[in-house]
Design a protein that fits this description.
318 residues, mainly alpha, Arc Repressor Mutant, subunit A, 15 helices, 0% strand, elongated, KN_HD, homeobox, Homeobox domain-containing protein
Length: 318
C-alpha cells in the first residue's frame, strides 16, 4: 500500500477524523473486516484512505508523529488560538479507537513501507519545525522593529508619544460622521490588509508579543552564565578591595596618632602586619588611599610635609 500519496493534507488532525462515523459503523457491525469498511465508505479510494489512516494510527511512531505535527502548529499559532489545538488533541484517542478494528484487519500486511514512511515523515516534521521557528522569529522581529520605527517617526513628527492623548473630543457632527463611515466600511475592499499590510490584527500582535518574550528569554539564557561570571568577578573584587572593619580601626588609630606625619616606617608597617594580619601590600595601599582622601582636609599634615622637605633639602645643601 502506498502511503506517500496521502501527504500532506491527509495527515492533518481534521483529515484523520474524516468519515469516522462510517468507520465506527463498520467496526460495530463486526465480522465484515475491510469489506464492511469499504461498503460503509462507498468503496474505491475512500476505503484505501481509511485503511492508510488506520495503519498510521496503529503504528508505534504515531504518537511521535502527532507530537511533531502539533509542535509545528503551535509555533505559528497565536496564543489565543492555542486552546483549539488542545481541544483537537483531546479527541485524538476517540479517532484511534474508531480505526482500531480496521487496523487489526490489515495487520498481516508488510509493514516495512509504513515503517519507512513514518520515520521519514517524523524527521521531515522535526526539520520543518526548526525552519518554521526561525522564519517566524525573524519576520516577527522585523515586524516589531518596523512598528517601533514607525512609532518613533510619528513621535518625531508630532512631538507626542504613541500612548499620549490630546484630550480633545469630537463634536456631535463629527461623531455622527464617524459612525456613518464605520457603517459603510467593508473589509473586503481594504486591499492593503488583505495583502498583509496595514495595522496588525489582534492575533498578529499576540504572536509578535509571544515571539518577543521567547527571544528575550533565549537572550537571557544565552548570556546567563556570562552575567553570573561578571557579577561574581565584581563581588570578588569588592571583597578583595574592602578590608575587615577591625583591621581598618587599627590602621585608623595609627593614622590619627600620626596625623602630622602619616608615613609609617618599615618597622611601623611590620608591626601593623602583625597586629592586623594583613599583607604589606594591603597596608601600603590603605595608607596611599587614606592620604589621598585626607590630603586637603588636613592642612597641618601638608604643612609638615613641606617643612620636612625643606629641612631635608637644607641638610643636603650643607
Amino acid at each position: 500500500m502506498a502511503f506517500h500519496g496521502h501527504l500532506p493534507h491527509e495527515m492533518t488532525m481534521q483529515a484523520l477524523g474524516a468519515d469516522d462515523a462510517a468507520v465506527a459503523a463498520a467496526a460495530a457491525a463486526g465480522g465484515g473486516g475491510e469489506d464492511a469498511v469499504a461498503a460503509a465508505m462507498g468503496g474505491g479510494g475512500e476505503a484505501d484512505a481509511a485503511r492508510c489512516k488506520a495503519e498510521i494510527l496503529a503504528h508505534p511512531l504515531y504518537e511521535q508523529l502527532l507530537s511533531a505535527h502539533v509542535a509545528c502548529l503551535r509555533i505559528a499559532t497565536p496564543v489565543d488560538q492555542l486552546p483549539r489545538i488542545d481541544a483537537q488533541l483531546a479527541q485524538s484517542q476517540g479517532v484511534v479507537a474508531k480505526y482500531s478494528a480496521l487496523a487489526a484487519a490489515a495487520a498481516g500486511d508488510d509493514g516495512r513501507e509504513l515503517d519507512q514512511f513514518m520515520t521519514h515523515y517524523v524527521l521531515l516534521l522535526c526539520s520543518f519545525k526548526e525552519q518554521l521557528q526561525q522564519h517566524v522569529r525573524v519576520h516577527a522581529m522585523e515586524a516589531v522593529m518596523a512598528c517601533w520605527e514607525l512609532e518613533q517617526n510619528l513621535q518625531s513628527l508630532t512631538g507626542a508619544s504613541p500612548g499620549e492623548g490630546t484630550g480633545a473630543t469630537m463634536s456631535d457632527g463629527e461623531d455622527d460622521q464617524a459612525d456613518s463611515e464605520a457603517n459603510m466600511y467593508d473589509p473586503s475592499l481594504d486591499g492593503a490588509d488583505n495583502m498583509g499590510f496595514g495595522l496588525p490584527t489582534e492575533s498578529e500582535r499576540s504572536l509578535m508579543e509571544r515571539v518577543r518574550q521567547e527571544l528575550k528569554h533565549e537572550l537571557k539564557q544565552g548570556y546567563k552564565e556570562k552575567l553570573i561570571d561578571i557579577r561574581e568577578e565584581i563581588l570578588r573584587k569588592r571583597r578583595a578591595g574592602k578590608l575587615p572593619g577591625d583591621t581598618t580601626s587599627t590602621l585608623k588609630a595609627w593614622w590619627q596618632s600620626h596625623a602630622k606625619w602619616p608615613y609609617p616606617t618599615e618597622e611601623d608597617k611590620a608591626r601593623l602586619v602583625q597586629e592586623t594580619g594583613l599583607q604589606l601590600k594591603q597596608i601600603n595601599n590603605w595608607f596611599i588611599n587614606q592620604r589621598k582622601r585626607n590630603w586637603h582636609s588636613n592642612p597641618s599634615s601638608s604643612t609638615s610635609v613641606k617643612t620636612k622637605r625643606k629641612s631635608n633639602a637644607g641638610d643636603n645643601n650643607s
